[in-house]
Each structure stands twice: as C-alpha cells, then as structure tokens.
C-alpha cells in the first residue's frame, strides 16, 4: 500500500487547524459556487478504461439523444466494464444484450464480417445504435429526448408514446434518473463542480479516527477494534452523513463528478491507481482536506493519518453526491 508520510514538520494539531479553516472557508462560499456548476462534454480523464475509451467517445456521438458520458454510464451500469459478464437472465457481454435482442439490434461495429455479442468492438457500437433506434421511435414524445430514450429502453417505446413522455412508472423514472446521474461521473467538467455540503461532516468523522491502526478489510466495527482500511474509512465517513458508498475503492470512483486537481475541495475523495488510464486499477482512496493533503488509512503497520496527494499514482478525485452514490450499480464491481 501507500508509504508517503507527511513531511516538513507539520504536526497533527496544525493540520487539524488547517482542516477547520479550509472547511469553514469552503462551505461559507458554497452557496455562491453551487449555481456555477456547468454542464460537461466529453469524457473525464481516466473515467473509462483505456481499452474502451475511443469506442465510447466515437459511438457516443451517434445521435443527439446520447453522448459519450451517457453511453459510458449505461455500459458501467450494465456490466461494470466486464466484457465476459453473463447474467442469470442470459444477458451477455459488456452491453448485456439478451441473444434475442442482439439478433435484431446487434451490428458489426468493427467491420470484420461478424456480429459478436461478446466483442466490445461490436457490443459498444450496438448499444449506441440501439439507443438511437429507440430515440427515433419516440422522437415525437414531449419532453427531453434523452430521458424519453432511456424510458423506452426500460419500459418500451410504446409506453413512452402512450404517455407522451416518460411514463409514470417508478421503476422507469428511477432508471432515467440513475443513468443521467451516473453519466455525471463520466463527464469532463467544463465549469466548476458544485460543492457538497455533506463533505464537511465526512471530514470531521475521518478526523476523529486519526491515529487508529490500519486493518486490511476493516470497516471500523467493534469486533475489528474500530480499525479501517482505506475504502472502509471513506465508506464510514460518508455513511456518517447518510450517504452509502460501495465497499471497494474503485467502485467509489463513480459516486459523483470529477473535479480537476486545481478545483479540489475538502471532502472530495482522492484516488490512486496502478494504471492512470484505467479506473478499475484504483488501489487506494483518501478524503481530501485541502492544501494538497488527505486523511487516509495507508497500509498495514501504519495508522490513519495525513498524507500528500500529489504522487505519481494519483488518478483523480470524485465529489460525492447522494444521488451519485444511489446511482451506482450493485454486483458489478471488484
């Protein structure tokens, strides 16, 4: 695990004062920044595994109802980027097509003369093509074209036409919200990302655990002596403010949008990966406190402490949101 100690003689007491000042300043200005959050285009750096990034970027612009981030969100929600995924319902591959749907809607995306449900070079283009087919079926319905397309994916185009928009089904409405929310975690921001008001309390929780010995797989339970590993600490910190995160660090990556390095705010989760082009290779996570430092549970033999974030394996950050955490798929991650 990570072995970067706080240098320069910065003591815990001084760091706690720094955290307090940063949090007060950050959240005092939050109201002004919240309205400045901009929409995003393209894919955030490292958001999509490198093996699929060009495919998602290319096919995510196939029609106006989709974009690369939305296509990425669908693929992640369906399979967690697992090209060999197979569900109990016999949905197959990275896009989780059922064979009957594939027979009708699968395309030869790479032009090799065959349509292979297991090949991402066919399945990703087919997912985009299917989205655009659905969008064309419901183009006359009132409301947002992307929402109507997603509703057609979930409930069928007939229901969208019948109700002249997203039908009043809870499952369908939840699906539309889930995918559009999850898409934010794949977008490259074009403006400031709205701050999170829950972040301050999450930091205070993590602060209270400083000096606690690290435990691999630790969730802070009494039988574990209140000890944590890196993702156990971040999970518990956000659970303290009512936000449920996945247990594993690389699944926490998609719990919200990704601010740039110079836009980090206290409370952002900061991530470290073996491959900076593949978020599935994330191996460590901490909670940013400002000034280039995080609180984290580093590795066996260490204690929860402050460490610098600017290291060669820093892949990026996530600004956790309640809706973003709720949108995360279950059962796809490692």
Could you give the count of β-strands? 7
Q: Approximately how much beta-strand content do the residues carry?
A: 5-15%
Order of helices and strands: HHEHHHHHHHEHHHEEEEEH
Overall morphology: elongated
Largest sheet strand order: 6-5-4-3-7
Could you tell me how far the N terminus lies from the C terminus, measured between alpha carbons in angstroms? 17 Å
pLDDT averaged over residues: 86
* Uncertain stretches: 1-40
Helix-residue proportion: 25-40%
Which structural traits does this protein have?
334 residues, alpha+beta, five-stranded antiparallel β-sheet, two-stranded antiparallel sheet, 39% helix, elongated
Question: Layout of SSEs?
Answer:
Layout: H1 12-28, H2 30-34, E1 40-43, H3 50-59, H4 68-79, H5 99-105, H6 120-137, H7 145-155, H8 157-163, H9 170-183, E2 187-189, H10 199-207, H11 230-239, H12 249-252, E3 269-273, E4 282-290, E5 293-296, E6 305-308, E7 314-318, H13 322-327
Antiparallel strand pairs: 1-2, 3-4, 3-7, 4-5, 5-6
Description:
- 39% of the residues lie in helices and 10% in strands.
- The chain is of the alpha+beta class and 334 residues long.
- It has a five-stranded antiparallel β-sheet.
- A hairpin with an 8-residue loop joins β5 (293-296) and β6.
- It is elongated.
- Mean pLDDT is 86; it is low at 1-40.
What is shown here, in short?
The chain has 334 residues and is of the alpha+beta class.
């Amino acid at each position: 695990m990570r072995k970067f100690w706080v240098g320069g003689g910065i003591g815990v007491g001084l760091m706690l004062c720094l955290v307090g000042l940063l949090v007060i300043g950050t959240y005092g200005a939050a109201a002004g920044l919240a309205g400045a959050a901009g929409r995003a285009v393209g894919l955030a750096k490292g958001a999509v595994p490198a093996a699929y990034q060009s495919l998602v970027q290319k096919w995510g612009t196939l029609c106006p109802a989709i974009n690369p981030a939305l296509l990425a969100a669908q693929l992640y929600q369906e399979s967690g980027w697992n090209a060999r995924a197979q569900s109990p319902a016999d949905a197959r591959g990275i896009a989780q097509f059922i064979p009957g749907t594939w027979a009708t809607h699968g395309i030869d995306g790479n032009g090799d003369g065959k349509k292979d449900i297991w090949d991402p070079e066919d399945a990703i283009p087919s997912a985009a093509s299917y989205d655009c087919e659905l969008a064309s079926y419901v183009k006359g319905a009132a409301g947002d074209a992307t929402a109507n397309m997603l509703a057609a994916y979930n409930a069928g185009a007939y229901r969208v036409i019948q109700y002249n928009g997203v039908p009043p089904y809870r499952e369908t409405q939840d699906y539309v919200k889930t995918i559009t929310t999850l898409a934010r975690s794949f977008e490259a921001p074009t403006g400031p990302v709205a701050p999170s008001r829950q972040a301050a309390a999450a930091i205070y929780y993590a602060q209270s655990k400083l000096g606690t010995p690290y435990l691999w797989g630790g969730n802070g339970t009494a039988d574990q002596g209140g000890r944590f590993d890196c993702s156990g600490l971040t999970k518990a910190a956000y659970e303290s403010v009512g936000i449920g995160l996945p247990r594993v660090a690389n699944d926490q990556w998609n719990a919200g949008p990704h601010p740039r390095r110079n836009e980090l705010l206290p409370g952002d989760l900061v991530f470290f990966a073996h491959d900076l082009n593949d978020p599935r290779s994330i191996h460590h996570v901490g909670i940013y406190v400002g000034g280039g430092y995080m609180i984290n549970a580093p590795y066996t033999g260490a204690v929860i402490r402050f460490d610098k974030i600017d290291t060669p394996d820093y892949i990026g950050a996530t600004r956790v949101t309640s809706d973003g955490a709720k949108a995360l798929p279950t059962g796809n991650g490692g």
